[in-house]
Amino acid sequence: MDFVQWFVAPLQYEFMVKAILVSALVGFVCSALSCYMILKGWALMGDAVSHAVLPGVVIAYLLNIPLAIGAFVFGVGSVIAIGFVKAKTRIKEDTVIGLVFTGFFAFGLVLVSKVVSTVDLGHILFGNVLGISDADIIQTVVISLITLVTLAVLRKDLILFCFDPTHARSIGLNITFLYYVLLSLLSLTAVAGLQTVGIILVVAMLVTPGATAYLLSDRFDHMMLIAMASGVFSSVFGTYISYYIDGSTGGCIVVLQTLLFVAAMIFAPKHGLLVRAKKQEKFLD
Amino acid sequence: MYDTSIDLENVTVAYHGKVALHSATLQLKAGTVCGLVGMNGAGKSTLFKALMGFVKPDTGRILINGLPIRQVQKSNWVAYVPQSEEVDWNFPVSVYDVVMMGRYGYMNLLRIPRSPDKVAVRESLERVEMWQLRDRQIGELSGGQKKRTFFARALAQQGTVLLLDEPFAGVDIKTEKMMIDLLIALRQVGHTVLISTHDLASVTTFCDQVVLINRSILAYGDTSEVFTEENLSRTFGGSVGDLSFSKSRLTQTQLNPGSEE
Fold first, then answer.
1. Does residue A261 have a pLDDT over 90?
2. Burial code of B233-253, b = ≥16 C-beta within 10 A, e = fewer?
3. CATH second-level architecture of A17-284?
4. Which pTM does this prediction carry?
């Protein structure tokens, strides 16, 4: 099969066109946000929030309101719960995070399995981009627009918030507001990512592209571009590969992202293992 | 220009019921370079936080140039130079980006720099001799260059009150001398500089005022009057001998007060 054919053949199916476009959009948006997650050190937080949104998604489904609203409430709620338990007990933060998000997630699982029989649990856990409905596409587009516009408008404030919150506060920026903005975007994109790779792997979309880009760049703007490029590339090719091997789409996307990360880790021109080893050699000489 | 730049009256700050700063009263005139001397945990950083508006005093009031802290923040009057350990040096920003952050308070929502911002950044970088290195990622700098970058950011902010936290830790002689010259230049144009430090020797060389702190403000005023062995032993709980600086050196510097003039 030649290369062009490989690309074009799946496009005769409408579901594949939709899947590729939605995956690309989600990859794009999650990658943009992933840069902030990496720099703020919020990978664990991303994991927690993306799991904790599950009950919110189910309840929103029951109430027939946009899933994003339920996710938003439970995503932010989980972080408030984490903060509360941390402040009121002697338990350390990582323990609290692990405890709270699994609690939320388990509650969501019970809800899905016992209350909502029309939703396939597998689709929520592992994504179902090949069978995505038009309503879900609209929701993903709306979430993406909100996220991208917010990131564009508050770009510099958010960078400063990640880099030096003390200075941000001293010049009168409202860092509590910025904290909740970032947290809200995290909850929203978790819903978007849920459609493509599923709730279990969402955190990869929110961490891996940023981590890859971080190894390849020393400027925020470059980091953002590289992250988005690697995110979109993984989403599109992951969807294609899953079509040809008839395997999990979310799995393929995240495996590709991880391979890109490993390549960056080894070959990055400045921060890669090879260059570091060479430098070490020179130093020893 | 106000006569009294920093004005604290009876300020008490407590965290979770633990008093970090008790009934602190302090007046600093505009146009001074003041050393803030005390042990770790004596309340130096609490005082800085209060001046930047991060903690609300439980009692008392703080005025800067005659205004309460809320208004001060909007005016960008207080600039802060952090300790090197507080900074993430791997963060993907350049020297120029960092100094431009000093201008955000003057910009619109999108933080798009206009020409006065660019001029201020360039001038600040030139004053600390970092303009040539403006495109470097901040992790690629030496200790002194790092410190000068954040100093330039404070200059670009064009505040009238400058707070420095252990500014001479881990910097080279060139940087230290450059910073001291700049601090003295700032004093001459009426700015107030407050330096938190352990380095007692540096206090006597260029600080005209000194504040001694140990849970409360023990003494403040002209360096020559306040920097006495008795006051210092109260500040450090009677263990001046434990410090990196010996008694004989203290006596020597005391013999030549105001040697920077």
1. yes
2. eebbeeebeeeebeeeebeeb
3. Orthogonal Bundle (1.10)
4. 0.89
